Amino acid sequence: MTMLMQHTVDATWTLFLHILSAEFTIKTGFGMYAYITPVDVDKAYRDYQDSNTPMQLFVREYVRPYA
After folding, report:
1. Could you give the CA distance from residue 30 to residue 26 in angstroms, rounded to a whole number?
2. Cβ count near 4 (within 10 Å)
3. How many folded domains does the chain comprise?
């Protein structure tokens, strides 16, 4: 729970959620929680932080298998 609370004050976390949700909606017609859990979202965000990939590209590649 502490990890999630830290994300709520992080502007990058908020932007990531917005972009991820939009990408799922555009590609699949449904929001991200129709396909992944909040734990998956948190893991995706941590994976993004560990990568050197731009956020939009990371999200596009993340959503691709679901589309």
Report:
1. 8
2. 12
3. 1
